[in-house]
Amino acid sequence: MPRLSLVVPVYKVQGYLPECLDSLLGQDYTDFEIIAVDDCSPDGSGAILDQYAARDARIHVIHLTENVGLGRARNAGLERAQGDYVLFLDSDDTLSDGALAAIADRLEATGDPEILVYDYARTYWDGEIRPNQRAELLRSEGPDVFRLADRPELLNLLQIVWNKAYRRDFIARTGLTFPPGYYEDAPWTFCSMISAERMAVLDRVCVLYRQRREGGNILKTVSRKHFDVFDQYRRVFDYLDAHPELDEWRGPLFRKMVDHYLTVLERPGRLPQSARAEFFHRASADYRDRLPKGFQRPAGGRGHKYAMLERDAYATMTGATAAVKFRRKVRNGAAAAISRSKRGAVGMSYQSQLRLPLDENLAVFSAYWSRSVSCNPAAIDAELARLAPGIRRVWAVRADSVDGVPEGVEHVRVGSRAYWAAVARAKYLVNNVNFADTVVKREGQIHLQTHHGTPLKTMGLDQQKYPASTHMNFAKLLERCDRWDFSLSSNSFSTAVWERVYPCSYTTLETGYPRNDFLVNATAEDVRRARAALGLADGTRAMLYMPTHREYQPGFTPALDLARLADELGPDVTLLIRGHYFYGSSPHIAELRRSGRILDVSGHGRVEELYLAADALITDYSSAMFDYALLDRPIIVYAPDWDIYSAVRGTYFNLLEEPPGAVATTQAELIRLLGSREYDGPEATERRAGFRLRFCEFDDGHAAERVVRRVFLGEETALPFVPFTERPHAPTPDQALELVERA
What we know:
about 15% strand; TagF_N; 28 helices; Nucleotide-diphossugar_trans; Bifunctional glycosyltransferase family 2 protein/CDP-glycerol:glycerophosphate glycerophosphotransferase
């Protein structure tokens, strides 16, 4: 039997769950088991648990067939626990390094107490760590083992279960279980602590308590569910009634009850306004029913609140609260004036447009910081024209990019009066990055964030850990993301990343990427047309080289000797170079350009057409590999600086170990791979197949239609996905040539 059993209830935490599990499996103490309870989670959490369980026998997964809530999910895990001690951990929190070893050592040193209480710290999205404000209560003063009566101040700790280790036979003897509903920790915590004969403390931070910016915390949820607190304290006092030997705790627990009721009343964002009076009256009734003989109210303002609750004086309480709010409003007046001044700086024209009604039939599109008409927004634009032609579609384009706007596309120049009028009044704003900080999100507007790739490199808040992000203002980033109503995803992997690194209150749409519909649905004629537009002759192999940006390089420095590579590949191969404009002044490279054996396609308007034209892709860390994998054509990863790139920028997986095909880390290796055709051999093909299954999950050729129907037409029922094995994809150039000749 394991020494420790860790019960981890899981529900809608796919973005945080791997970090939680890694913090457990990475402990230097190993005598434990994990009972992970999938509470019928609607996201990918259950699959993540199964993947971890397949790799580590210490993880036991329970998949519940219906959602039962946190308390009953813990009960399900508790029934399966086999350890001497049971610990609970919420699945978005983590253990600190060495926590389990410290807990096990303290248990042994104190002779196996019934409860061990340890410390925690709160962690925030910006990297801040705040210690427990009551941490001093855990200092080892006096006997190592004690009853609560010896240290009653421990009742003032936050009533949580996950900062304690409970001896399993103690749980069985007391019959403790978790009730349903909000605040389920209160009856378990109080009843266990007053019942324990032998307790101990560990003055060490063992749990890192994640403070999620959005979601995941019932205390930030406006709901009548907060009325559950009455049932929880009824259970506490029922327990006292059933155990007269514990009557000494009636007064202290009465105080905890009243303080908890007042907290629910006083904290904004919990009770609906229409329910506050009802809650107060119920709290007052509990006060009078459970008031212990001889109870002394606390002094000062807190005592006045106790008195108002005892008298059921709701009107008096609300009057006092209103007075406090008024004083606070006066103090904040100066700050509000400054805020209005800043808004005014945006421009009087924009301000006047913001006061006009929204145009329900206007959509504004932008892509890549308004540099082009492209990517997912362009694909959505085209599908919107087909399904909802009554909606006017306008593109925001920078002044220096206006010449590249396709003929017939309505556009406004960024910064112009027409631009500000459009973004002020449009019902829909669509972008694959963020609109500028000065764009105001109006009530009723719908912001659609399409993103522009599957992330290999770290994104959003995850970048805080790496040197390449020192210039970023993450608070401003999240303010921009707060405007999103919808966020697109092309695979479950991306969904989990986006929800963690952009913790805002948007709705995720797992639709696939609209820009990739073109790749899935392309015909042989589309392939031939794409190659002809580039001047590629029949029988010529085209290799598309797409390196990504490196933050640690001041400019674009090709990692390949392109002239040598072209020579080695021979006259029947053309290199298509896409990315930053590549520079080369040597006469040999100029001659290669003139001969057509190197084509700089960095300025090509549609990268999807380049994918169709290419026989294979050579890339390093670009998200191009995820899209190109849809074509099921060879991908060669050329990663000569993987160690530097992964250390400076950060990545979500090791590309050298989980590549979409063949890997080369030197130019000599790359030339050997290309010359031997090993890049298209059985091993590379097998890697590509696994990569496609993982990252081409939702791209079935109907992504744009899904988006338009959900966002613009308001249809709740999504189009079913075409099964992966039944999805079409474009023929290779050789196949396309054969098909066209047959036709």
